Each structure stands twice: as C-alpha cells, then as structure tokens.
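User: I'll paste a sequence; please echo it back and then give the predicted structure.

Assistant: Echoing your sequence first, then the prediction.
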Amino acid sequence: MTDYSVLLPCVPRRLEQALPFAGLVRWTGATRLWQGQAMVMEPHQTFTGLAGAGFRVPTGFGVTLMPLRHPYEAALQARSVALATGEPVIAGFGPGAKAFQENILGAAYEKPLQVARQYVTAVRRLLDGETVVMDGPHLTFRGQLAPVAAPRVDVGLGVLRPAMARLAGEVADVVITWLTPPGYLRDVIMPAVAEGAERAGRTSLPRVVAMVPTGLEKEGREGDGPERLALAGNAAHMGAPHYLDMLGRAGVDVGSGRIEDVARGVVETGAFAGGDLPQVVKALRAYEEVGVDEIVLNTTAVHKLFGTQESLADLSAILRAVTAPQH
C-alpha cells in the first residue's frame, strides 16, 4: 500500500507557521512531514522546534544539499532530529545544481556521482555506528557517532536521471524524486534503480518517494488552474538545467524556451496533479500504479497564491480521498 505524506509548503520564518502542517500529519492519515532544503530557517531546527512544541511526527528531508555540510555533521543532525522527535527520519541528500556547488565550495564537483556515492555511504555507515575512515578521493576523514539508541534514520538520495537512480539502487535506503511524471518513473527511473541494486547484490530495492506538486480547482477561487499552479510552485525547478533535462527525457517540450510550455507539459505528463478532486485523485493513483511507495503532497503553489488555510484545506481534502478505503 502506498503511503501519503505532506510537504511543508512554505519556508517558515517563525516556528508557528509550520505547526498547522505538523498537526495535519498528527491528526490525519498522513505518514510523514517533509521539507526540502531551506535557506531561512534550517529544516533540522524546524523539526526539532516542532517536537519541542509537542508535535512529534515522523519527518523527511527531501533533500538537503551536500555542499552545505560535512557527512559527519549530516549524520549527527539527522540522528538528532530522530532523538528529538522520537520518530523515524528519512534523511535525503543531493549535490545541488552546479552553480550552487561553485558558490558554496568555490568549484563544482568534478564527479558528482562519485561524491554522492562516498557521501551517502559515509552517512549510512556513521548512522549504523561504524567507525568510518574515508581516504579520498573526494572525502577524507575518520569518525564515529557517539553510541546511543535512536529511532531509525534512513538515508535517501535525490534522483532525477538514470545515472543517479542506478547509484541510489546501489547505496541508498530511499529514492527521492521531485516533479517526475509517473510514466518516466516507470520506464526510466525504476528500471535504473533495479539495475543498480542488482549490480550491488542487494536483495531488496530502496523505497521510492515521489514529491508530487498538487492543488485543487475550486469554485470561487480564481487562478487555480493546473498550469498556473504548476508554474507558481515550480518555476525555479522548471528553469534549472538538470530539471529541464529530466523533463525533456520524460516527454515535456522544453525546446521552445518558454516556461509556459514547460508548465503545460508538466501538467500533461501528470507530473502536476491538478483539477477537481476526482482528477487529482486519479493523477495520484497513477503514481501508486507504477509502484511508488510514498507520495508526498506538495501544495506550495496553493500556499503561495492563496495562503495557509487554503493549502491546509486542499491537503485535508486530498488526504481524505486517497486514504479512504477503495471499493
């Protein structure tokens, strides 16, 4: 059975902005509260603050960016959230865009797949209590986390294209995708994950988590058409080279240079789940049918255009519909 979770649809500046979404996870059928990398209030502090306010829920980071922290610090922060919440954590990582790597590190990763392999492997082994010795070529350190009993922390890898999917199949506990159409997951990503797992001799595949942007069309709410919502919530992604490459592989027209055409293709391929409630449910069921283990509802566009209450209302309605027994 596919789990459904919630993405925090804003970058909070105060902890109370995140509380309603943690409450939604606590009081509905949602499995987990997720947040991507934030550059205002750091996601680890947000989740720990929510726990201190009494909202201890399972959490996921989808994804934090490797250039910002050493793998030892990454493992320590993820386990700290597990200890603070008393709940399991999915700690997802990604190398980020080339320009981001250059800005933070002074130079882009020469071989990002090799860096990701070492990074994810180091974090997993640290969380398993091992003494980790890395002697290059990209990471050089020796360390062990102080032993302590803590809830499980799974290590995820952000995946858009086949090469990273194969790597995730080899070394990650969880595959985390964003804005990836269900057909592309079925035909490209999942076979690559399986290939990587087979190459590594793994007996089970990593779980697949799909971050799916969504929003409802409602009577009396102007400007909530799927294409507008897709653009409002994902304009930065739809202009980034690595996302454009992925979307082009998935059949989206990215050659015109017009972001409106990209938004239209995102809707047409099902990467954005929009329309009325039955249409949204049908679009989400397509992710279930291709074998996604966890679908994360991303209402960033609704929050941006219409505010917190509308975002919560959409999430509540969708969660009720997708978690109700099917006949």
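The chain is about 45% helix and 20% strand. The two ends are 15 Å apart (CA to CA).
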